[in-house]
Amino acid sequence: MSPDRAKSAREVLAFYVEAGVDAAIGETANDYLSAPAPAAAPPDALSGGGDTPAARPALVMPRNLETKGGATPPPAIPEAAVMAAREAARSAASLDELRDILDRFDGCALKATASRLVFADGNPQARLMFVGEAPGREEDIEGLAFVGRSGKLLDQMLKAIGLDRTQAYIANIVPWRPPGNRTPTPVETQICLPFIQRQIELANPDILICIGQPSTAALLRVQGIMKNRGRWFPYDTGTREIRAMPMLHPAYLLRTPIAKRLAWRDFLAIKKALG
Ligand code: URA
Predict the structure, then answer these.
(1) Could you give the C-alpha distances from 17 to 11, 101, 138, 251, in angstroms and in order?
(2) Which of these CATH numbers, 3.10.129.10, 3.40.50.300, 3.40.470.10, 3.40.50.150, describes 78-274?
(3) What is the pLDDT of residue 31?
(4) Is the model's pLDDT at 164 over the cut of 70?
(5) Which candidate, 195, 194, 228, places its Cα nearest to that of 211?
(6) Fewer C-beta neighbours within 10 Å, C or N terminus of the chain?
């Protein structure tokens, strides 16, 4: 390779890393911008239901690139994978069992690209449980939830109300890192949902905090993090009803420091609820 081409390649790689794309997930690069749209892709082409990992596209295309000039129906939720997840999750009698079952579960394509399962961090006996969206790069390396920059901010917020990770249990809706830290797709979320629901049931916290919009939408079925943060919602764990509250994601707070005062208010409400 000529020195010029090598320099360009290094610059492109640096750009990818800065944009959060730091994991190679296939042998060849796909140019989704110039590739023709898959004309008659079945609605569940991106699902784990029945197709082999090799037959699945390596990356999920952004919705607006899927077809030219026409709305694409959202991919159908693969019922078989969701049913398998429900059954597997239900069969776990303890958090340790759930972790093992999840580690063996092959129904979610994210497992193939992540380095490892990120099940949780903190104290499963805690009265307070946080559920975020999905692991990022640091979590994928360490195998623990919220250990990167967002996690450090979460630790500071906990400290501000006199708590630390020995008094909180922390997990995610999706336990495998999505490539390049992209948002988990609705299909991935639906497949992983029975596991986090069972994890909450087995941990049995008194207070559940949904970190960010995806977690709030998946667990509480409400849309709009700005209007719902700081509000208490009932959450049925399967064995009892507890209190749940959406909070702004620490990654958002890092980008928007002015919003930290809202998070401070929410943390005071958490402290009060813990009594
Ligand atoms: N963001 C999340 O939602 N979860 C993590 O574990 C880390 C960052």
Answers:
(1) 10, 33, 14, 18
(2) 3.40.470.10
(3) 63
(4) yes
(5) 228
(6) C
State the pTM of this model.
Answer: 0.77
**CA 20 to ligand 1 centroid distance, Å:** 14
Distance 32 CA to ligand 1 centre (A): 27
Ligand 1 environment, Cβ below 6 A: 132-136, 139, 145-146, 148, 150-151, 172, 211
Which residues does 138 contact at the CB level (< 8 Å), separation at least 6?
Answer: 147, 148, 149, 151
98 within 8 A of 92, measured Cβ to Cβ? yes
Per-residue CA distances from 32 to 2, 25, 65, 134, 190 (Å): 27, 15, 8, 24, 25
Please tell me the distance between residue 172's alpha carbon and the centre of ligand 1 in angstroms: 7
- At residue 209, the pLDDT reads 98
Give the tokens for residue 101.
């079952």
End-to-end Cα separation, the chain, in angstroms: 65
| Residues 178, 188: Cα–Cα separation, whole Å | 9
Q: What is the pLDDT of residue 13?
A: 75
What's the pLDDT at 50?
29
Ligand 1 center–CA 55 separation, angstroms: 29
List 171's β-bridge partners, or say none: 131
Ligand 1, atom 7, lies closest to the CA of 146
Q: pLDDT tens-digit profile of 182-232? A: 999 999 999 999 999 999 999 999 999 999 999 999 999 999 999 999 999
Question: Could you tell me the residue ranges of all domains in the chain?
Answer: 78-274
